Amino acid sequence: MRVLLVHPSPLMYSEIYLRLEPLGMERVAAALRASGHQVRMLDLQIFSHRDLFAEIADFTPEAVGFSLNYLANAPEVIDLAKTIKGWRPETFVFAGGHSASFIAGELLEHGAGAIDCVARGEGETVAPEMLAAVQDGGLARVPGVVALDGAGPPPRLLKDIDSFTPARDLTRKRHKYFISVFDPCASIEFTRGCPWDCAFCSAWTFYGRSYRQASPEAAARELESIREPNVFIVDDVAFIHADHGMAIGREIEKRGIKKRYYLETRADVLCRNREVFEYWRRLGLELMFMGLEAIDEAGLKLHRKRSSPSVNFKALEIARAMGLTVAINLIADPDWDERRFEIVREWAMSIDEVVHLTVATPYPGTETWFTESRRLTTLDYRLFDIQHAVLPTKLPLRKFYDELVKTQAVLNRKHLGLRGLFQVSSEAARLAAHGQTNFLKMLWKFNRVYSRERQYNDHLRPVEYAMRPPQGHSAQRPPAAQLYVHNPRAAAQA
Ligand code: B12
Ligand code: SF4
User: What's the domain range around 141?
Assistant: First the structure.
């Protein structure tokens, strides 16, 4: 079949700080190609809706699949599905990805016939089987498929994450992918899943608490095939197992691969596996993101982060000693008042690291979705991007955004203000000389994208598609069947 895979447009955060290749979609594309399909991809983080329609007219795909990792993109995907189905009714339209997997039923309802099915879970296993069933029948019996006329059993986990190398040759304008001074930047996956169970996160519920590693040889081989000089390691928590990180490192050294790396990890993992990070520092690790989430014990407990402020500060010291550039994330609680924002601003200004602030958001697929959703103040998918408040704020909403944007602006200026600009100007000039201007453009974008008026007014837009919160929710962890995409028992056997 001719299959077109589409990634939706960027969300607020990506409008400024980064734009990264759609790795999950590239993996699905590789699996579909291996099954004999002719595949094209279009990334709306770079291309426009008009480009998409031109692509469809040119390629005349028999199937169009949307990658729906981010909940806030749901209305865009539903609208595009409706347009495509109205224009070319014979096209098989489907969606997959992280968020689609948690809201399959409601996506089909909103689609009103325009979305033929949702492929839940890991796309490498479900998508080829799904398209085979489109041709041969039995769609509603495929594991992971939720179709208009029924649903198959839970999705199957990919046995070996080495199986499909991302189809990077199908992504166009790759020079547009960047994160900060890593311009251009590619992405890679060394492990999949997360063994922790933070209450606000759906990474562990998606993968049924499984955790798989790429073989060090396959990881290094893939890295060697990447053209970009910079690489974003997408693992939820990098280097949980020191021996795995060391083994990949040795393969990289053996092959003489020279790149710069960005990764995300936890403070306790950095403290425990310091030697791996030091080794990777020598291999080219430069940027690191740590989700500290809170600066005090009570906040960490609330998010069930299973870490402590002392471990967090120790991790920052270790990272500093290694000369890494660290960005940390804190979760702003809707309960915060002016004083709390002020404390956070003061704390953030007192440390060297880049500090990001995101707003606590109960997402489908998380425990907080079940325990908090009765308090939701909005059912608008578009506001679920961790930059908007979807729970009642202690401060009046407008005032909450005043404080939030003020704090984000202070944090942004701290790094991209005059002093910061001076520090990064030579890097920006070097990149511009090579025709890479993504980072340069980012430096002036903050005020255009982040505005308390925009964020507040976003709440006033009419809601065409309303989310479906769980019925009969309680303050307890829900039963496993409701929480997971991949079944934990099956995941444990994989
Ligand atoms: C790396 C990452 C990022 C990277 C993007 C990396 C990249 N190259 O694309 C960056 C840093 C840019 C990022 C940004 C954000 N992220 Co993010 N991100 C992740 C993370 C950690 C891993 C994603 C990944 O690449 N996994 C590896 C690939 C192989 O897996 P995958 O993409 O999920 O794809 C598989 C399946 O989903 C499925 N699939 C995917 N597409 C398709 C398409 C079809 C048709 C089919 C059938 C299947 C399918 O098959 C794939 C292969 O198995 C996830 C957590 C997680 N573990 O999923 C959070 C996560 C997806 N991000 C999240 C969030 C909130 C954000 C931000 C909104 C945060 C912010 N500060 O604003 C932004 C928004 C970005 C945007 N679109 O504008 C949330 C999503 C919550 C939600 N329900 O909406 C997650 C789940 C994290 C969390 N803790 O809750 N993110
Ligand atoms: S927040 Fe990080 S450590 Fe916690 S469950 Fe999610 S990916 Fe794992």
Answer: 2-151
**Dist. CA 195 → ligand 2 center (Å):** 8
The 10s digit of each residue's pLDDT in 22-70 is 999 999 999 999 999 999 999 999 999 999 999 999 999 999 999 999 9
Specify if 163 maps to a domain: no
403 — pLDDT class (breaks 50, 70, 90): very high
Q: Report which of 171, 186, 172 is spatially closest to residue 257, judged by C-alpha positions.
A: 186
For the CA of 130, the closest atom of ligand 1 is 47
Q: Cα(200) to centroid of ligand 2, in Å?
A: 8
468 domain-assigned: no
Asked, for residue 167, whether it belongs to a domain, the answer is: no
Q: How many residues does the chain have?
A: 494
Q: What is the mean pLDDT of residues 171-179?
A: 96
Q: Which strands make up the sheet holding 186-188, listed edge to edge?
A: 186-188, 230-233, 260-265, 285-293, 325-332, 354-359
266 lines ligand 2 (CB under 6 A): yes
Phi-psi region of 221 (alpha: psi -120 to 50; beta: other; left: phi over 0): alpha
Q: Is the peptide bond before 488 cis (omega within 30 degrees of 0)?
A: no
**Residue 121 CB–ligand 1 contact under 6 Å:** no
Judgement on whether residues 139 and 179 belong to the same structural domain of the protein:
no
pLDDT score of 222 more than 70: yes
Instruction: Output the CA 218–ligand 1 centroid distance in Å.
Output: 22
Q: Whose CA is nearest to atom 79 of ligand 1?
A: 70
| Pocket flag, ligand 2, residue 118 (CB < 6 Å) | no
Distance 97 CA to ligand 1 centre (A): 8
